[in-house]
Design goal:
By secondary structure, the chain is an alpha/beta fold. The chain has seven helices and seven strands; from the N terminus they run βαβαβαβαβααβαβ. The protein has one domain: Rossmann fold. Strands 3-2-1-4-5-6-7 form a seven-stranded parallel sheet, sandwiched between helices. The longest helix has 27 residues. Bound molecules: NADPH dihydro-nicotinamide-adenine-dinucleotide phosphate.
């Protein structure tokens, strides 16, 4: 059993997830690097260890119940509680298609990874999150592109964005956030959605104005109370976002 607070991060092998793993390790969390790619997860673990941090690599596909169950079992054996679950893993497929043209293949894959995956992870790790004496948080890495209010606002930049399958899945993730927050209101577990902003990763591309480290800072701020993020809130680095 480790003494440090434990942070579990999905899709932590690259992009925002990798930067978030390094950031939480710097902040003295023991980091669980959830990833489908074992070699990349091990590289992140070594990068953390090289800086004196504490981490473990965990095989994890957020669409595979057996993979999630195995991770939850391994975590329960190794740790008495989890302080933070960051549901970061995500895909952005079929960006060029709006919701009329999006393929059902893309819609179903996006919902499975971006919305149902975080729900599966949250439910599987709930006993360990509830066991955290200082409270625990679930942070869902969403997107303002999944804001229904922004979608219906013709003045908003995101109103003209296509990406029907991605946007639907992030709307569903925001729904998961709100419903989990409500369902867990009498527990010590809080639930948050965050938009990292357009970020330099494989999803965001090289022209994005924000770095993965910016997103990692926001996640850490939400987890530690450094930024204002009440239970059941949706925000970016600037402040609250409309659902
Ligand atoms: P990347 O493409 O760099 O990283 C995506 C990560 O998700 C990878 O680690 C990938 O793993 C993982 N992943 C995908 N599917 C699964 C799965 N089934 N099980 C486990 N892991 C999986 O993108 P970002 O870092 O940009 O994205 C991270 C999050 O940030 C996403 O939820 C995204 O929607 C969100 N976001 C990003 C923005 C941006 O501009 N970059 C803007 C708004 C939100 P693998 O290597 O195995 O594919």
């Amino acid at each position: 059993m480790s003494a440090a607070k434990v942070a579990v991060i999905t899709g932590a092998n690259r992009g925002i997830g990798r930067a978030t793993a390094l950031r939480f390790a710097d902040a003295d969390y023991h980091v669980v690097i959830g990833a489908r790619d074992a070699a990349q997860a091990e590289e992140v673990r070594e990068a953390i260890a090289a800086k004196g941090g504490s981490a473990e690599a965990m095989p994890l596909d957020v669409t595979a119940p057996a993979s999630i169950d195995a991770a939850a079992d391994a975590l329960a054996k190794a740790h008495s509680s989890i302080s933070v679950l960051i549901n970061n893993a995500g895909i952005n497929v079929g960006q060029e298609h709006d919701i009329v043209a999006a393929s059902y293949e893309d819609i179903e894959a996006s919902l499975a990874i971006n919305a149902i995956g975080p729900l599966r992870m949250s439910r599987a790790l709930l006993p360990l999150l509830e066991a955290s004496r200082d409270g625990a948080s679930i942070i869902n890495v969403s997107s303002e592109a999944g804001s229904i209010a922004a979608t219906l606002d013709p003045e908003n930049d995101y109103a003209s964005m296509k990406a029907g399958s991605y946007r639907l899945s992030k709307m569903a993730l925001n729904g998961v956030t709100a419903l989990l927050s409500k369902a867990l209101r009498d527990t010590s577990v809080t639930v948050h959605a965050m938009c990292p902003g357009w970020t330099q990763t494989d999803i965001g591309g090289p022209d994005a104005p924000n770095t993965p480290e910016d997103a990692a800072d926001l996640a850490l701020g939400i987890a530690t109370g450094g930024v204002d993020a009440p239970d059941g809130s949706f925000r970016n680095r600037e402040g609250a976002l409309p659902w």
